[in-house]
Fold:
Amino acid sequence: MDTNLRRRIRAGDHDAFGDLFDAYARSVYNHAYRLTGEWAVAEDVVSLTFLDAWRLRDKLDEEGGSLRPWLLGIATNVTRNTRRAARRHTAAVARLPRDETVRDFADEIAGRLDDAAQLAVVRTALAKLRRAEREVLALCVWSGLDYAAAAEALGVPVGTVRSRLSRARAKLAKYMEPPSGHGQMRGDRTTAVRPIREGNR
Structure:
């Protein structure tokens, strides 16, 4: 099925590209969210990923298996570019004169604090990883790609994927250890490193 789909996409078949979107948009979205931690940014990444996929369709090999690694590789690159653009925007905004009137958002976020605190623990741990380690963790652990597919997505050797994933798991386990003397952290700290399979279509 995927080989035929590859050929149709390379030929510029809009229906085939619609099938591609239907089959893999959720995987791309989940991958983008795991890399960014922001729903709105993940939605933007999905749009940009499929836009880039259409633009790069003539570079797609006609023979091959699942198109998921190809799309997740594009999504990883789009996420890198999106985060760079966001950093430039933040820096530019920081240089603008500040408005002295600051709106009080306390009432709006009061009901979300508990969930946000738990997410903050995971995001803080992930932020301590190198970008390459976060990317391979998102692909192999959360998106469920095997080493070969992740290597294809990132354009690196399989051995590099293995070593990055090993380092990422070891670091996460260390960073998510609850502080001694302060009781246990709520929830299961292994959730962040346990595989969550989405399927390998």
Remarks:
- The radius of gyration is 19 Å.
